[in-house]
Amino acid sequence: MADAFGMIAVIQVVGGLGVYAWTSLALMAVFRKAGAASWKAWVPVWNAWTLFECAGMRGWWAAVLAGGAVVVGAAAAMVAGALGAAALGASFGGDPADAQASALAAVLVPALLALVILVPALVLHVRMLRGLGRGFGLGAGHTVLGVVLFPVWASIVGWGSARWLPGAAVDAGAPVAGVPGAGVPVEPAPTAPTVPALADFSARPGTAPGFSHTPVFGAPSAASATPGAPAFPAVPPPAFGAPVRPPANPWAPPTGVPAPPAPASAYVAAPSPPPAPAGSPAPSDVEERTVLAGRRLLGWSLVLPDGRSVALTADTVVLGRNPAAPRRAPQAQLVAVDDVTRTVSKTHALLTLTASGWVVTDLDSTNGVSLGAVADAGTEVDGSAPLSGPFFLGDAALELRADG
Asked: What are the DSSP calls for 320-332, one per residue?
């Protein structure tokens, strides 16, 4: 009997160590994608601390949960021991009802104490998985999987095709240590100034520019009959055979007096467009859409293997043979690298402009990213690293330059 219990205990210990090793190996791949040190995956509490930070939360939640588990576990053991001793004493004293009540309390009280730490731990675990899901572009299904089978979740995220999107897991303006690009405030795009509508000086129906509204035969107009409206002088009917002259404009300046200079206007009317050629579509059928012009981003450019220089126009750049923009950064600039050695992956690396400079992130490429003028194992990027000069995508040499 003792040998059977001993064998079960050995199997449980070996199985627990195997699951921990499996989870740590998977978390190493997760940390490499998120730009954190992969060795932290093997250190208890520290690996949870790093996961909280990557999810945009406070890392010290891991220490709080670990300390709370120790305190609650010690308290539960003490209560269970005291109640178990009371049940044993009542059983030997001939009081079976008291012994049964004490034995039941020895089971229920430690379970209730365990809920004190398990409930907040579950809430924080779900929040952490949701933050990591945003960072990797995953949905709610992966969050449920992480709650039920965390080692499987870590294996799918770490060894699968999920890619880390810097700054996507955290809220805007929340500084998080160890996450490239997190906490960098994004300035809103400038908006065009509102131009007030210009006054309409066009002629009204039934009138001609420069002429009075007063009837030719002296009858008062509706405007002159309105109280407060300016009175216009009546014009007598012309003599028979005399040439008809238009009535004088009462608003015109006196003859011989130079007109005052027109005040300077802050807005200049746009010139009239030229007439459309025959057969062209009507203006209402033409799509009026403003196209954004590409602008250089702080004078940065990228020198490709063939010697061409590409101006960087966005703070997120995707490199590869035929790169695709990530879902969380659809406005990322795509730079195709023409590599004759075929060592550059389709979507190879991600460049991100942070407050401290450019950061390069390996997007699970086949041949990796190396920094410096020589590509070797010692300069290979593990996850993410700062970038300030030459670097390699596989065997393709590139260089990041600041254009003066």
From this structure: ESS----TT-TTP
Domains of the chain and CATH, by start: 2-159 (no CATH), 300-402 (2.60.200.20)
pLDDT in tens, 83-106: 888 888 877 777 778 878 888 888
**Cβ(47)–Cβ(40) below 8 Å:** yes
Locate tokens 């009138």: which residue? 207
Whole-model pTM: value is 0.44
Select from 230, 163, 82 the least CA-distant residue to 384: 163
Distance CA 142, CA 99 (A): 47
Residue with tokens 């992956």: 345
How many Cβ atoms from other residues are within 10 Å of residue 55's Cβ?
Answer: 24
DSSP states along 275-329? PPPTTPPPGGGS---PPPPP--STTEEEE-TTS-EEE--SSEEEEESS----TT-
What is the rounded distance in angstroms from the CA atom of residue 164 to the CA atom of residue 132?
9
Q: Beta-carbon neighbour count of residue 397 at 10 Å? A: 17
- Choose among 370, 333, 47, 23: nearest CA to 178: 47
223 confidence band (pLDDT: 50, 70, 90):
very low
CA distance 45 to 36: 15
- The answer to whether the CB of 390 falls within 8 A of the CB of 373 is yes
